[in-house]
Amino acid sequence: MINKTVKNAQEALQGITDGMTLMLGGFGLCGIPENAIQELLRLGVKDLTCISNNAGVDDFGIGLLLQKRQVKKMISSYVGENAEFERQLLSGELEVELTPQGTLAERIRAGGAGIPAFFTPAGYGTEVGEGKESREFNGKMYLMESWLKADFAFVKAWKGDTAGNLIYKGTARNFNPMMATAGKITVAEVEELVPAGELDPNEIHTPGIFVQRIFQGEKYEKRIEQKTVRTV
Amino acid sequence: MSLDKHGIAKRIAQEVENGMYVNLGIGIPTLVANYLPQGIEVVLQSENGLLGMGPFPTEDEVDADLINAGKQTITTLSGSSIFSSADSFGMIRGEHVHLTILGAMEVSERGDIANWKIPGKMVKGMGGAMDLVASAKNIIVAMQHTARDGSSKLLKNCTLPITGLNCVKKIVTDLAVIEVTDKGFKLLERAPGVSVEDIQKATEGHLIVEGEIPEVQL
């Protein structure tokens, strides 16, 4: 089996340069590639285009990259919860392409699956549709949306093996499986890295073909945005 | 007496039927889960990738890898399933989700909805709202009838950027239950003690009143 293992985040991010387009998995702070983000901060690469459903919070996730002005453009569906983001956006320092969440997921899936464009009803008749081709199918209007690809895709999984096969846990799956397919170089960081053969092939969510580099991450903080509990 | 947010949620809960897959938006819609009719089976979808959303966890059950679309910690139920965002919106776009309940800033008499942006003030993004309103077979909006300054939020035409056209089927506000028809807002029920005149005054769009209008029964 081809071995995709690299030592750590430092090795996994080799080749990354200013101006690149990146995908970063996660929904809010759930399932984000914490180690890759730390390494991006350490490297200080800038003028990045980041494709990610959200932009983190002020002091965690992609919010950390925004604080250091490393991001030129975000492609996201929801960027609340981040005051620095809003400040940079309103002052024009940061460019943002807001995309409906399902459209974003499908654009990434299309990028990985070799489908340059598709039609979706989401956003027809709204600002999102301005300048885009629209077409009627069975009496309903649809917008044409195009694929997204990235120079590097950073995904976070629960378990992975040396062949790059991935298993996600809970709703930390979210955008990670599609992003894994759409990176020229996909870097997977996992909580537990095992030798090929130890994961049941029936249980794999992302087949190793999509993953170029894999490493076991460290010090996962897994911050919770809205801790809500019930009392028994 | 007008309905408070729990009253609005209770009234919307009456619209939920046995066997439905339902997506609840953030805010009042989330409360609907607390008032679902006894004895029916309903599956709640959370668009970040979960079918069968359970209650909030106990302190011991809290799992950072298990949240809903409002980023709150939650639990699964027996029979729950977890999937990617692409699969999740496939369910939504493919009309497999029967009912969407969400909040709005404005609704027009044709059923257009605005709920994602206030130019120059709020730029948080649309999240999954545009996908949901473009595809759901049945959309119920939970909202206040008027803004804080008393201006109507049920309008001839939305003034804020649109989330989706011609999609809202029913609106439950603090004052009334309204069906969106080809001819405008049809008044179905009024909140306890609220008169048809009160509702008329609070509604800028065309309000259709036919016969006696009953009070909401909770």
Automatic annotation (TrEMBL), chain A:
Key words, A-Z: Transferase
Gene Ontology molecular function terms on file: CoA-transferase activity
SMART domains listed in its UniProt record: CoA_trans (SM00882)
Pfam short name (any one): CoA_trans
InterPro entries xrefs: 3-oxoacid_CoA-transf_A, CoA_trans_fam_I, CoA_transf_BS, NagB/RpiA_transferase-like
Family: Belongs to the 3-oxoacid CoA-transferase subunit A family.
Chain ranges passing through the membrane: none
Record's protein name: Succinyl-CoA--3-ketoacid-CoA transferase
Keyword Chloroplast: no
Record keyword Lipid metabolism present: no
UniProtKB/TrEMBL annotation, chain B:
GO MF annotations, alphabetized: CoA-transferase activity
Matching InterPro entries: 3-oxoacid_CoA-transf_B (IPR012791), CoA_trans_fam_I (IPR004165), CoA_transf_AS (IPR004164), NagB/RpiA_transferase-like (IPR037171)
Keyword Transferase listed: yes
This protein's record includes keyword Transferase: yes
PROSITE patterns (UniProt xref): COA_TRANSF_2
Keywords for the protein's UniProt record, in alphabetical order: Transferase
Pfam families in alphabetical order: CoA_trans (PF01144)
Similarity comment: Belongs to the 3-oxoacid CoA-transferase subunit B family.
Protein name (record): Succinyl-CoA--3-ketoacid-CoA transferase
Species classification: Bacteria, Pseudomonadati, Bacteroidota, Cytophagia, Cytophagales
